[in-house]
Design brief:
The chain is α+β, with helices and mostly antiparallel strands. It contains 4 helices and 8 strands.
């Protein structure tokens, strides 16, 4: 514990890097802090009996099936999808967004992580174009499935971009 905050820890490699102190919200609604020495922790002073932070549930204001915006194995958003997203972000009352990209499990884990990050970054660029801020843009690849990857319908649900609104 550092003050009232739970410290996640640092590694020797992390201490050698330069960090910018910041606060960010993960897709589960947990606020994190990062110090300039790489130390990281949760903002919540409340812990479960297991010692995990009690995080607020951030409102997920949008879960978008990526098939509607991206072609298979693509990260560029088509013109119609771009217009829909611009309208969504411009009309939202939120001023800051956290973007999480996901894929199905058809490719390697490393490939899916890169693809989901590129897709999250593409959506984040539209957030910025709409005049709003991005707190983070992260790709989870196939690591957080919503459904089974054993069926076409399940894989379709796993190919998504989640938009978390921060007000």
């Amino acid at each position: 514990m550092l003050g009232r905050f739970c410290v996640l820890g640092t590694s020797a490699a992390a201490q050698a890097e330069r960090y910018v102190p910041t606060i960010w919200v993960d897709p589960d609604g947990c606020e994190h802090w990062v110090m300039d020495d790489g130390a990281e922790g949760y903002m919540s002073p409340h812990l479960t009996p297991e010692g995990l932070p009690v995080c607020r549930q951030g409102p997920t204001c949008g879960t978008l099936n990526t098939d509607q915006f991206f072609g298979t194995d693509q990260h560029r958003i088509d013109a119609r999808g771009r217009a829909r997203l611009l309208n969504f972000f411009r009309s939202s009352e939120a001023t800051v967004f956290s973007i999480a990209g996901h894929t199905d499990a058809r490719a390697s884990d490393a490939y899916n992580l890169r693809l989901s990050q590129r897709r999250a970054n593409a959506v984040a660029a539209i957030v910025r174009e709409a005049g709003k801020q991005v707190s983070q843009s992260v790709g989870y690849g196939e690591r957080k499935p919503r459904a089974t990857n054993n069926t076409a319908e399940g894989m379709s649900q796993n190919r998504r971009v989640e938009i978390i609104c921060v007000r």
